[in-house]
Amino acid sequence: MNSLIDKRRIPGSIALALMILVTVFWTYWSVGEMYFEGWWGGWLMRLAYLIPAGAFLILTLAAFTWPRLGGWLLIILGGAFTVWFWNIQLSRGVELNFRFLLVAFPITGLVVLLGALFLLEGRYRRQRRIEGQARSQNWFRRNMGYLLAIGLPLLTAGVVSAVNLPIVLTRVDDGNRGERLLAAYGAVLVWAPSGPGWNWQQPWGGYPAWDRIALYGVLPVGMEDKPGYEEAHATSVTLESYGLCRYLSEDGTTLMEEPQDVWRMPSTDEIARSLMLHNQNAGCTWDGTTGRMRCERMPDKETPLWAPDEPPVYYWSADEYDAEEAYYVSYNGSVSHQPKNFGNPRHGYRCVREP
Fold this sequence. Notes:
By secondary structure, this protein is an alpha+beta fold. The protein contains eleven helices and ten strands.
């Protein structure tokens, strides 16, 4: 009977271990993103990033305490998230193949599988109660599941905070949101002041996509939809000919009706070479690839290049990745790309001009 009892504990043990692992992952992501993206507004904004970690912690504790209830919750929520995630990816043109399913499984199907394991644990736990099996008299052994489920995510949050808190608490913000002259690493540029040339927030709360910036001067001038571009993307030629920065007044505060040709969008390399840390150039250079750049020191979201109290953590560049995507640079020295028509509260821009 002892071997049978041990085997019946396996599904629940596996499910709990994997749920703790998933919770640790989402804690790492949530706390890290809070410091990376969310450290700009009030505490309600920052704590919103902890929702995924908190949700998985609650699910873990619920499933461990009430396996049948927790199992069904995981199956329902995991299934709904899987459908939502797949729809989002397919709408972006991602091909639904074996590689995609393999990559997506840890954040979609795994949750459903864990739900099934907890349902099995609920069945076996009920059998053990019927057979009169007593719980361990040792407090630590009896509560080891709870200690691990709570302790490991808290430890993860503590480690991530120990690394990131000194960075965000020493972040430089001189309060100046005006025009700034930066002697970059191999380039000298004037960066636009606060206004339509720098993180122009749209009525829906986000910032304009690369397409919107590039097509600004196409009739009708503005951020409206452009006839003929409903299914097409702008190009670097379009950006150079009709880009928003061309219409910026000389003082960088107003969009004019006709092109002024004073300002332009910076290149990926120019943004990279202008990144700073504590009023010192970070010494970053871009080699044309994506990922973390080589920098002499890790740059940060600081003035004079960034507005630490605003949402954007990325700047669009003037460069295209391909016909459908454009490059952007993050404040910490990474380069990536995404669809040109994708705009959100984290992707800003800033026009530049020569001194």
